[in-house]
Amino acid sequence: MTTVIPSFAHTGLAPELLAALTAQGIIEPFPIQTATLPDSLAGRDVLGRGRTGSGKTLAFGLPLLSRTAGRRARPGRPLALVLVPTRELAQQVTTALAPYARAVGLRCATIVGGLSLQRQADALRAGAEVVVATPGRLNDLVNRGDARLGEVAITVLDEADQMADMGFLPQVTKLLEQVAPDGQRMLFSATLDGGVDRLVRRFLSSPVTHSVDPGTATVTEMTHHVLHVDAADKPAALTRIAAREGRTILFMGTKHRADRLARQLLSQGVRAAALHGGKSQPQRTRILEQFRTGQVTALVATDVAARGIHVDGLDMVVNVDPPTEAKDYLHRGGRTARAGESGAVVTLVLPEQRRDVSRLMSVAGIKPQSTQVRLGDEALARVTGAREPSGVPVTIVVPPAPAARSTGGGRSADGSGTAGGRSTHRASGRSRRPRRPSPA
Questions:
Q1: For residue 34, which phi and psi values (nearest 5 degrees)?
Q2: What is the C-alpha separation between 362 and 326, in angstroms, rounded?
Q3: Which partner from 19, 112, 375, 433 sits 20 to 30 angstroms from 393, CA to CA?
Q4: Quick one: which H or E segment has residue 163?
């Protein structure tokens, strides 16, 4: 039985980090943090299993920063590495760790596809102790000789199961073979399938396992609803749901369907935007910022964005197209009910989809509330907050896609081009009230 700490003050974290936590209004640790910090701060290998939104970023970020503090990286030779599956998650992790890295004088670099390869190479050459990266782009830079990983003493794999789903395991394996062999490894994943178990066996040495939530569990603050609708009623019902108060994410099966729905919603007066892998990285970053600030209230997304979105106060996720796998359902739902907040996941189900969705819910370990709805039913508004849209078309300005140009890096192995603008990461300047830590 490992030690569980009651508060950050009992962790042995660097005083500068404790002061930064206080300055951020973060007082009480989450269960995954209280469970893992004693082991991770002691340098042990850690295998953490927990749902999205359980507080994993600080669970690995604080010990990584605390144990790296006081060291200085040579050009192109980072000391700590965080591997994540998507660009959005990489930027989210960097932003979440930025105030704590500054507190202990550590430099961070974010290495992702979709932004300038040369600028990222320059950032590594300038010296960065901590690198947060997607596997494809980091492999590009290693192959060019811009990054050498032999001095990486702490390596984190975050959302390892999605890296497996996206076909990154060969690249992840290649990177892990290059880091310091006697270094610390931390792996966080909701599940251990898809080859993640092989990574654990090969690269983690006697890991301490912490399972804060079962692999298929979801949070008690999250409610699940299945709305049975007829095909003729679905478009209008969906528009009314998207017009609800507050921010809503609507998940679609393809980027083309996402674009089409966003256009339809805009024509009905709903402030909507589509987010998917077909957008350039500057566009995706801008759209997410518009969603966070409320300029966009209905975000129409595909699964490529399911793990990279963290918006405080998001209280509803709508599966317009039901996912085909239980893990995709859980990852979509993980966008809401984060940091102890409440939220709802609503799945629209046509008659011919009932059997498949019922099977999916059973695999996910979820017993949803099922409701048959028709247009004008009080039940639709009661469950989702649906309301009539204004009908007055609105326009949301998004940045144009950059002109294609060669940067010498071709196409990254993480599936995104290398053209793009400058990446900047800074902590939010908004005032904060004391709260539990954002799970980022």
A1: -65, -30
A2: 9
A3: 375
A4: helix 160-165
Distance CA 9, CA 299 (A): 39
**Token reading at 1:** 């039985």
Distinct helix (H) and strand (E) counts, the chain? 15, 14
Give per-residue pLDDT as tens, 368-418: 999 999 887 788 998 999 999 999 999 887 655 544 333 333 333 343 333
**Rounded CA separation 317/337 (Å):** 10
Give the per-residue SS3 of 59-127: HHHHHHHHHHCCCCCECCECCEEEECCCHHHHHHHHHHHHHHHHHCCCCEEEECCCCCHHHHHHHHHHC
Rounded to whole angstroms, the Cα distance separating 401 from 393 reads 23
Return the axis-axis angle of helices 255-267 and 234-242, rounded to nearest 10°: 70
Question: Chain centroid to CA 213: how far?
Answer: 18
Whole-angstrom distance, CA of residue 248 vs CA of residue 316: 5
Distance CA 49, CA 39 (A): 15
Beta bridge partners of 185: 155
Strand-pair category, 272-275 with 298-301: parallel
End-to-end CA distance of the chain: 28
User: Apex CA 63: angle with CA 196 and CA 149, to 5°?
Assistant: 60
Element (H, E) at 285: helix 281-293
Query: Which residue's structure tokens are 């006081």?
Result: 70
pLDDT at res. 436: 45
Between the CA atoms of 253, 255, 259 and 264, what dihedral angle is there, to the nearest 10 degrees?
-10
Residue with tokens 């497996």: 164
Whole-angstrom distance, CA of residue 112 vs CA of residue 91: 9
In single-letter form, the type of residue at position 245 comes to E
Alpha carbon distance 165, 154 (integer Å): 24
Residues in the chain: 440
Question: Other C-beta atoms within 10 Å of 231: how many?
Answer: 9
List, for the chain, all residue ranges whose pLDDT scores fall below the cut of 70: 1-6, 50-54, 212-221, 305-310, 312-313, 336-342, 398-440
DSSP-derived letter for residue 385 is -
Side chain identity, residue 9:
A
**CB burial class (10 A; 0-12, 13-18, 19+) of residue 188?**
buried
